[in-house]
Amino acid sequence: MVNCLSVIVDGVIPYWRLALQHNLGKNSFSLRIYGPVAVICPAGNVSGITDRFTDTALDTQYKFI
Q: Which of 40, 33, 50 is nearest to 9 (CA)?
């Protein structure tokens, strides 16, 4: 189990997103990929080695309008 209180973030955590959408008449389809990128100091260690953490997700959607 990870103790979330012992992790310190080094800087900001940017969140990125890329989306593609295509419409065909009454149909709509979209594909999205997104996620954050963070540099963290493991176990509350504020000096020394840091870890780079990237979490990527994929999402799709179909609509009949």
A: 40
- Residue ranges per structural domain of the chain: 4-64
- Per-residue pLDDT reduced to its tens digit, 10-47: 788 889 999 999 999 999 999 999 999 988 887 666 66
Long-range pairs for 40-47: beta carbons < 8 A, 24 or more residues apart? 40/7, 40/8, 40/9, 40/10, 41/7, 41/8, 41/9, 41/10, 42/6, 42/7, 43/6, 43/7, 44/6, 44/7, 44/8, 45/8, 46/8
Model pTM score: 0.62
Kindly list the distances between the CA atom of residue 59 and the CA atoms of 14, 29, 34, 54, in Å, as whole numbers in the listed order: 19, 11, 8, 17
